[in-house]
Amino acid sequence: MITESDIKGLLEAGIIDEATADDMRVYGAAVDADRPRFDFINAAYYFGALVVMLAFTWLLFDWYARYGGIALMALASSYAILFVLGGDWLWKQPGLRIPGGLLFTLAVCMVPIGVLGYQDYMGWFPAGNAFEIENDAERLVFLSQLQTQQAWIAAATLLAGLGAIKLRRFAFMAVPPILGFTACWMLLVEILNGGDAGERVMSPQLMLAGFFVMTVGFVVDRRTKEDFAFWLYGLGLAHFWFGMIGWLFSAPGEPGELAWGIFAFVNLLLFDVSILLQRKVFMVGGAVGIMAYLGHLGFETFEDVLLFPFALTFVGLAIMAAAVLYRKNEEKLEQLVMGLLPEGFKAWLPSSR
Predict the structure, then answer these.
(1) Segment 165-220, tens digit of pLDDT
(2) Distance CA 349, CA 80 (A)
(3) SS3 sequence of 1-33
(4) CA dihedral over 36, 42, 47, 53, signed as positive or negative
(5) d(CA 303, CA 351)
(6) Cys-Cys with 197: which of 83, 201, 229, 287 at CB 3.0–4.6 Å?
(7) How many CA atoms within 13 Å lie on the side-chain side of 57?
(8) Higher pLDDT, 348 or 106
(9) How far apart are CA 217 and CA 167, in angstroms?
(10) Euclidean distance between CA atoms 177 and 170, whole angstroms
């Protein structure tokens, strides 16, 4: 993005004239108007969408308790139509594609609520609480029925989200279908395991779902004008990361040092992935994981070792020094790393597209 200071610098250097500078300003304003960025206006757009969802969640429970599934379905359908009409109008206005896209996303979010209302109206969605069923066989039947209907809701959200993206290419709209896909995946695993799969089964499946989402992000990265990969990488990494935690630390008893060592190693690998894919989200995830590992060392493994805080201080300063050296030699180091990779592998990286 060319800033005003860049334009002034080009003018002072005599590279461009005033007419060209004015053309650059006009072009930059038109391009930046619909570009996602973190500023007050865009934050207000997303915050407003969040408030709408909170308001509808309130209405969801109130209307469902008072009027049942048919009222819920009618309310969700009405909201969805209004969101689509409003989103379509904003989408066509210059500089208003972001709020328009958010309204389309809210319309997609109405789909699972409408499907839930329809299921309840038809008598398909089981009512009650699994914890209140004392008989194990009856509880498993209830859970299987509940998860089957929930899987249909997740599948409908996934399909609606993919259809909406086809019509309006807005990156944030990838969030509902990603969540719908993960929910559908996990519910199908629950159903195939008789309705009551344990954490040792579900956590690896959550990791697998996250890895699949990140793989889709890798495929679409740098292939579309909209940055769908940002949400695919971010949500996929979150699913993978929490699934890994559940898998490593869900065994009976205290987690051993081997589990913590695997956890630290995977998070260190995320730094390499961040460099290869040029995505900071992996570096953030890796940093959070390493901080958790260092906290484990400080508060559990070396709890009574007085020299550990000094060693940890040295490690922290060494990390800062390494970051400074990397910043000064960033291009050289990346060229070195890329030079070590096979040509066939480099051609698959998003940066080469």
Answers:
(1) 988 889 999 999 999 999 999 988 888 877 677 777 889 999 999 999 999 999 99
(2) 39
(3) CCCHHHHHHHHHCCCCCHHHHHHHHHHHHHHHC
(4) negative
(5) 44
(6) 201
(7) 6
(8) 106
(9) 20
(10) 13
- Rounded CA separation 147/142 (Å): 9
- Written as six digits, the tokens of 254 are 């205290």
Burial of 263 (0-12, 13-18, 19+ CB in 10 A): buried
Q: How far apart are CA 121 and CA 215, in angstroms?
A: 38
- List pLDDT tens digits, range 141-166: 888 888 888 899 999 999 999 999 98
193-202 contacts at long range (C-beta below 8 A, 24 or more positions apart):
194/140, 194/144, 195/140, 195/141, 195/143, 195/144, 195/147, 196/139, 196/140, 196/143, 199/246, 199/250, 200/247, 200/250, 200/251, 202/246
Burial of 283 (0-12, 13-18, 19+ CB in 10 A): middle
Q: Where are the domains of the chain?
A: 1-32
φ, ψ (nearest 5 deg) of residue 37: -155, 160
In the 8-state DSSP scheme, what is residue 256? P
User: In sequence order, what DSSP letters do the residues of 123-173 get, joined into one string?
Assistant: T-SPPS-GGG--SHHHHHHHHHHHHHHHHHHHHHHHHHHHHHHHHS--GGG
Query: What pLDDT does residue 122 have?
Result: 87
The three-state (H, E, C) secondary structure of 181-211, written as one string: HHHHHHHHHHHHCCCCCCHHHHHHHHHHHHH
Question: How many Å apart are CA 273 and CA 3, to the nearest integer?
Answer: 30
Three-state DSSP class for residue 288: helix
Burial per residue of 134-164, b for 16 or more beta-carbon CB atoms within 10 angstroms, e otherwise: eeeeebeebbbebbbbbbbbbbbbbebbbeb
Note whether 143 and 196 are within 8 A (CB): yes
